[in-house]
Specification:
single chain, 196 residues, mainly alpha, Tetracycline Repressor, domain 2, 9 helices, 0% strand
């Protein structure tokens, strides 16, 4: 069973860039099967439909993002450093990874897809919980000066990430995304940063 899951995960990973680049409606089945290196009959037999594949891609995208965040959470020296690493990794992904804006593109194209929205919401909730724990730890350790609701702050940070992705999709300006990241870091902990 483990071997089949690895194969299925590999195939789904190959489909994410197609949906990310062409969108749900623009990605033809032959585009997907070519990227996955399978026949259309294999796609329909193993996954069911283009929409089912799309949902699996969204689930995988969210899952991989959460794995990265959990890894930082578990390995960071301090909570504040972990938050900085997550912010930095998000900026880097937005600018350098082709699929980093997949979730935002999905919402733009299919705002009424309830199954997709549920996957993204659950992933966002999990991500917010991780960030809330990190923020709580940073407050307790005196690393950040914040007296408000850390869950709201975590959701504000995630909304900032979404805004940066949208800004990068529209403007393609890496410098602006980096400056927004510095602004967010300054708002968390007033320390001396150099704008680059």
């Amino acid at each position: 069973m483990g071997h089949h899951k690895v194969i299925a995960d590999t195939l789904i990973k190959r489909a994410i860039p197609v949906f990310s680049k062409k969108g749900y409606h623009g990605a033809a089945v032959h585009d997907l099967t070519a990227a996955m290196q399978i026949s259309s009959s294999t796609l329909y037999y193993s996954i069911g439909s283009k929409h089912a594949l799309f949902l699996k891609c969204v689930e995988m995208y969210v899952g991989l993002s959460l794995e990265k965040q959990l890894q930082v959470y578990e390995q960071s020296v301090s909570a504040y450093q972990g938050i900085r690493q997550i912010i930095g990794a998000t900026i880097d992904a937005i600018i350098n990874e082709d699929n980093s804006c997949f979730d935002i593109k999905c919402i733009f194209e299919l705002p009424d897809d309830k199954k997709m929205i549920r996957i993204l919401k659950d992933g966002n909730d999990d991500s917010a919980a991780i960030l809330t724990n990190m923020l709580d730890s940073a407050v307790i350790a005196g690393e950040i000066n914040y007296r408000g609701d850390t869950a709201t702050l975590a959701n504000y940070i995630l909304a900032s990430f979404a805004g940066w992705r949208q800004s990068y999709i529209i403007h393609g300006n890496a410098h602006t995304v980096k400056k927004m990241g510095l602004h967010l870091l300054r708002s968390l902990k007033p320390v001396q940063f150099q704008d680059k």
